[in-house]
Predict the 3D structure of the following.
Amino acid sequence: MGKTYAMLGEGHRRAERGTDVIVGFVESHGRRFTEELVEGLEVIPRRRISYRGTTFEEMDVDAVLARRPKVALVDELAHTNVPGSRNEKRWQDIEELLEAGIEVITTVNIQHLESVNDVVEKITGVPQRETVPDSVVRAADQIELRDMTAEALRRRLAHGNVYAPEKVDAALSNYFRAGNLNALRELALLWTADRVDDALQLYREQHDITGTWEARERVVVAVTGGPEGETLIRRAARIAARSSRGDLLAVHVARSDGLAGATHEALAAQRLLVESLGGTFHQVLGDDVPEALLAFARAENATQLVLGDSRRPSLARIFGPGTAAHTIAASGDIDVHIVTHSHTGRFSLPRGRGSLSRRRRLRGLVLAIVLPPLLTLLLVPLRSNVNLVSDMLLFLLMTVVVALVGGLSPALISAVFGSGLLNYFFTPPYYTLSIRDANNALALFVFVLVATMVSSTVDAAARRTREAARAASESRILAGLAGSVLGGEEALQSMLERVREMFALSSVTLFERREDRWTTVASAGPPCKEPADSDTEVPAGDDLRLALCGRLLEAQDQRLIGAFAAQVAVVRDRIKLSLAAAEAAPLAEANKTRTALLAAVGHDLRTPLAAAKASVSSMLSHDVDLAEEDRRELLVTADESLDRLTALVDNLLDMSRLQSGGLTLDLRRTAVEEVAARALDDLGPYGRMVLVDIPHDIPRVYADPGLLERVLANVLTNAQRYSPGDNPPILTASQLGDRVEIRVIDRGPGIPPGDRDRVFLPFQRLGDTDNTTGVGLGLALARGLTEAMHGTMDPEETPGGGLTMVIALEAAQEETKDMAQKVIRG
């Protein structure tokens, strides 16, 4: 509301200040006040484009570029140009003007923005076919919202300031209901508020402003993936909810080396919780957690930061204040909340996890026992030439080698064993465990400490490498499994074979419980007799079991097998549903046809029959003395009713012949204009309301003249039914290659693209609540007859609104002989 009026007002203000302003395109929709405001501004003449027999007006981009004004006023940014224009969309025309240095003031409705298009359709029930990308609108230097309450806008409509008086009632009771307007208004306000927020962020970046501006509450909660995460997230959500439309952002700081961090399962669960509460989840890298948290908070212009109390015990806090204290000290103008939880002060060491195979750990243990004595035997003869520092470095190297082979435990044994040998054989006094020099004692202590730290690092790296390799392998396996299921690989046999090959099993069998017995559904390899006979039994649902034979699976493989079992259950259910749907489809279709036919016989056929019966009965009655004029009127009524009844029965019989493949055709060279004339005669007085524009040079087509007449009559009847009284349908024809296209154009409400194929279903009257206009066979029969004549019938959108039905038939060459009569069978 009021956008075009405001745009023209801004144009006048700029023109009064001496700016060169022109009107590139303004659509007044016949509104008097808008047309009056155009006066006084230079208007660039519009370009006239002919399309399918109709002339349309569009903005003349070339004329505007040649005029090169300072400012151009261009209405309706989301408008779709008529085919044959310079660009498909008006916003593309405007981009050309901007590239030429011309400033543009334009208008757009909230329902035309691409990002809210689906939301608008759910609210109003009306699909918006003309949309503009949000990025185009967001790129504007300035966006002004024209706001008005729903009640005020409805008053404007009622006063006739928007639509003509005859359209006001329909507009108020449909699209412009108060609920629709309030919802659209809220969408516009929220979208514009986000745009203002983007502008604020850009300004802060351009002016290097790092302080917090509390224009909107933004609450950042730090999550570690620990057990306290759910408590922190819910507390932060409540803090954000207390402020009007506060934002909730959860952030997890990951170590840049990737050697420590939360489990993926815990973080995934916390991500789902944040998103369910309307927040967003973020991950950042940083070794200094307080610094990373505050950098993220300042970048997001956060006003509050929520942290959990430390899980370290009180004794451990003696060695440092912890993350929370460091964050508070450096937070500046960001409020920091420290939330206590049930896990405060309950820090425990992580449980050990095997990083290497048992064989490698055994090898490492052997090396930890054998290598230190061997190295001692090698170095003792050289004791006079090699000093203690070199001996320690060699023993340290030996410990690293043990860590690489066997991991942490063998390396610790090697470090302790090696330190004892160094003390006994290489530290004065020799062959005793006492140490004379304090420096040597310090050196041995440092050796053990360094050996332990290096061994721990090597072991952690080996564990992370093994975990990463396994995770990558599992990801590839699960991705392949998901791709096979989504791609249509529904054969259970194929999936079970994949499991058998992947885990080197002898057989994989899927069992289903039926009547308290396990029945084999599918198997890869020799099937098991019972799930209990297998080496590993994995549930795949309440009544499904996967039986794995060949070897016992490791515990770490159970998770992957569980994922496979879940997908097998999905595929099994899909197969069952597909079979059930295939069995039910013919019954449903037959029932639908039977119901529709009964409705047609019960109402549509009975109505004209009743009218004819009443007319004949009146004429046969001896109680009423009818004048000749009344008798003739009754005869005409009976004749029209019987004609209508005949047409309905003919449609039913022809549809039956089409479906059974027994329709007889007489394909020959046929003049389109002659068949069109007969079809218009069939429409009676309605035929005179159709505009006909068929060129005289249109070639003849291969068609059955009688059937083509039926096709045109049915399509024209449908177009006449939905066309406004002041805008009758148009019948035109044109040649395209070796085809002739006959078009029936109407200016009615049109049909959404997703519903266009439905209008060709038998007994279907899409959006038609009038049950007195036929049994819904017209378009279905018309398309069937057209395809029987080797043609096509497709609906298209009429530019400017409405529906165009395109009937394409093969053009007949003059030198070709007429085709002989033939019968279509099957």
